Amino acid sequence: MSLRCLIVDDEPLAHGVITEYAKDIPFISIVGHCYRATEALFFLSNKQADLIFLDIRMPKLNGLDFLRTLQHKPLVIITSAYEEYALESFDLAVCDYLLKPFRLDRFLKAVNRALELYQLKKQNVTTSDIEKTTPKNGKQISLKVDKKHILVNVEEIHFLESLGNYVKVWKNNEFLLTPRTLGSFETQLPADYFIRIHKSFILNKKYVDYLEGNTIVLKNGQQVPIGKNFRGIIKPLLNIDD
């Protein structure tokens, strides 16, 4: 299996770095180079890409505005020198955010994440669509799984994990995959249970066992990372003492 990848960046050096890294990864195939987002629009109107490596600050049309114009979005990994666009990017359901300059090991982690999502989509793994009409203070949410509608107790959800254009809704050691953004859950789930602890994770506080470094360990042994921009609010909200 190979991911057809398009590089969209106004810096030739960035194209060189990604191309060089891709040589060592057998499932990555670079099929196009665009130096403007407007060029990428023309490319995608004629050819297909499974994954885009996308810069943000580019002339005429920036990367995020380009992403908003796409009706059928490929997987996207942001490659930017500016970290302030991270939250906005993840609200657009990007797969990962690479902060320039990035090393091969970080690049590999990002493309492995993209491959995982691509395989889930191709294999038609059971997906769910949590209906947006669910009241924020409701004790149950409706999940659409294939052609079935089931009710899940909110309290049974351990945490939610963003995965590109999808969110994993974890119940114990199993998850349901739903095509939604993490931000849409944040406004829906009851705040007395759930807290956002990372740009890619929302946690149910009742399942927390202990805090170790930058990781929260759950009672079932699962580990959830704490984002550096969220660490300051974690301890008081989880009633953890220094």
UniProtKB/TrEMBL annotation:
Coiled coil: none annotated. Residues 141-240 form the HTH LytTR-type domain. Keywords: Phosphoprotein. The keyword Phosphoprotein applies. The modification 4-aspartylphosphate is found at residue 55. It holds the Pfam family Response_reg. InterPro entries: CheY-like_superfamily, LytR-like, LytTR_DNA-bd_dom, Sig_transdc_resp-reg_receiver. Residues 4-115 form the Response regulatory domain. The keyword S-adenosyl-L-methionine does not apply. This is LytR/AlgR family response regulator transcription factor. It comes from Pedobacter vanadiisoli.
